[in-house]
Amino acid sequence: MEKKGEENLPQGPLANLNEEYISVRSAQGRRVLFYPFALTFIIMLGVWVVLSGKFDPFHLSLGLISCAIVSYLSCDLLFPSPKIKGLLRQWARFIRYVPWLMVEIIKANLHVTYLVFHPRMMELIDPKIVKFRSKLQSDLALVTFANSITLTPGTITVDVSIDGDFKVHAIDKASGDPLPGAMEANIAKAFGEV
Amino acid sequence: MDIIVCLFLFAGLFFFTGGAVGILRFPDFYCRLHPAGKLDTLGLLLALIGLALFNLHHFSLGTLLTSAKIILIVVFVFLASPTATHAIVDAGVRAGLAPWTKGEKRR
Amino acid sequence: MDNVFLYSGLYLAFLMLLSLYRPLFGPTVVDRMIGVNAIGSKTTVLLILIGLIFHRVEMFVDIALAYAMLNFLAVLAASRYFQKRKGLYDEAM
To answer: Is the same domain home to A95 and A180?
Structure first.
């Protein structure tokens, strides 16, 4: 199966992406890009300080050394693209998305709690599996969308394909019908895919 | 201050109650995941925010770090809980469990 | 305030006992996994409550963090293991 894929190279956007990935890896080899390394290092140092809680030189130097080693080995995991431009704007947009998600989570939680404590719950719920196709492009946006669906009660993502085919288990009509709707639009806005 | 902490804590306990009762009452595996995976997550968020606020009573660097750790737990659970829920759903689907539909006997 | 924490801790323990019904009698293995996951997330809060009662939060918060991670890993490993096994569907139904 894999050999076949190597022989006839995929066309279209996938081929481009693959080529870019390979060229980045082979051109740089094990050379570490500066911005991803620095960002990973700063994040890890913050977590280290919070977790250790000691500020004497011995513990701080231990933290510096181990954070440097770990971010040297894995800096291309957290920030896969070497571009720094747009990263800040991306994070600002994403942070603006979080409060909307929280409000949505609380509303949906109250709905499920109402269902749980309702005496005639068995007549109210009507589970079914909703299928739809999402317009989102990037992997990160799809993962965020799937996790947001799972976090808002009443809906659980059962399956996601790489093209954006979603299978969602909805507990009743009211929570299953508004999919994909507003949430997809908001995520598209947060990832700049309008 | 204490009143706000109690409010958060009791809201969290309320959602935890919803989760526990929902696990017992819902008719099948897929429906039980709804309260288990997510009412518990929101309950944990509310209860831990309340406890982190209470911990800041005597304000110092130590208590600030402890509260930061509690918030770190919340962030971790918010990332991990949908993943764990999805893993359980995946296991159920691959095992071939059919979803419960209206009118069937509860399992 | 200590009394509030004590009684909410006791109430949480009662809720854990209630959710223990699923791991014990759940009709399928995945039902049992749901019950274990729910008990684990309650334990995280209970650990911090215990820390506040004993005035040793800075120690118990580390245990709670480790417990949250262990709970997540345990659920992932268990679901990966059981989805490969046959005969899960008809167990005790």
So the answer is: yes
pLDDT of residue A167: 82
Do A40 and A110 reside in the same domain of the chain?
no
CA dist., res. C63 & res. A6, Å (int)? 48
Residue at B58 is within a domain: yes
Residue A136 or A113, more confident? A113
Where do we find the tokens 């962030």? Answer: B75
Q: Phi and psi (nearest 5°) for A155?
A: -140, 135
Residues B38, A153: contact at Cβ < 8 Å?
A: yes
Residue among C11, C31, C88 whose CB faces B13 most closely: C11
pLDDT tens-digit map of A26-81: 444 555 667 778 888 888 888 888 888 778 888 889 989 998 888 888 777 766 66
Q: Domain boundary residue among A29, A56, A78?
A: A78
One domain for residues A108 and A67: no
Q: Which residue range forms the structural domain that includes residue A130?
A: 87-190
- The pLDDT score that the predictor gives to residue A30 is 52
Q: Using a CB-CB distance cutoff of 8 angstroms, which residues of chain B are in contact with residue A153?
A: 34-35, 38-39
Say yes or no: A23 and A70 in one domain.
yes
DSSP A169: E
- On whether residue B104 sits in a domain, the answer given is no
Domain total in chain B: 1
Kindly provide the ipTM of the predicted complex, given to two decimals: 0.84
How would you list the strands of the sheet with A128-133, edge to edge?
A128-133, A165-170, A155-160
Whether B16 has its CB under 8 Å from any CB of chain A: the answer is no
Tokens of A170: 């909805």
CB pairs under 8 A between B and C: 138
Q: Answer whether residue B105 is part of any domain.
A: no
Model confidence over C40-53: pLDDT tens digits? 889 999 999 999 89
Question: CA of A117: which chain B residue's CA is closest?
Answer: B18
Please give the Cα distance from A181 to A152 (Å, whole number). 14
